[in-house]
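Attaching the record inline, Q. Sequence:
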Amino acid sequence: MSLDRTLAIATRIFHQIRRDHRSLALIIVAPLLVMALVGFSFTEQQPVLDRISPGMMCVFAFFFTFLLTGVSFLRERAQGTLERLLVTPVGRGDILVGYLLGFFLFAAIQSALILLFTVWALDINYQGNLWQVFAVLMVVTVVGVNLGIFISVFARNEFQVVQFIPIVLAPQIFLSGVVLPVDQLPGYFQVASKVLPLTYAVGALRDMMLHGQAFSDVLGDVGILAAFAVVFLVLAAVTVRRT
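Structure, as predicted:
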């Protein structure tokens, strides 16, 4: 890998997304609208909102990051940019890490907006340090970015990327503890939840925001999230090579 090549690819992605008004709307406007719709629905039930807000932040940070990355990476393939890079001396590590860095900056902005809107606009009660909460969300976004790159390899158009959403997101919403705590699910669903990244993200944020635990107390969950990110990036490298 070459740092210069990786940064060059990341810079190109940054400028490309910055000029794309649809992508910017997906990054800035869409998460706030959805958070407002869900959050303000619970204004008369503040304890419920406080309890579900960590899971909401994980879901929306993961979902919008996955969607942004999947659609944007698909466009790179559709325009032939990725194929042209693959036949150059640039390594696959340079390409994938460059794309990851380019998408990650916007994913970080998106996660920051979701966190600040949830804490200040929805005025939830929480414990813990917001910087540490944000650090966990950053790991979630890396998982979403890498999964978006991996999944987009199997899509031929933007509609097909959207078709993956029920398969990728729906099981995680229902089995990761967002709707119902994992320990209250049937035993077979508890087993299934252990292979879903959002299970560890929701668990970490709930421990921090509802029980006041520090980042060091949830390192186990964060480490598993990081492992998911690495696995998805490796899978993306394998599938890109085959295409």
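Residues 3-242 form one domain. The mean pLDDT is 84.

More tomorrow.
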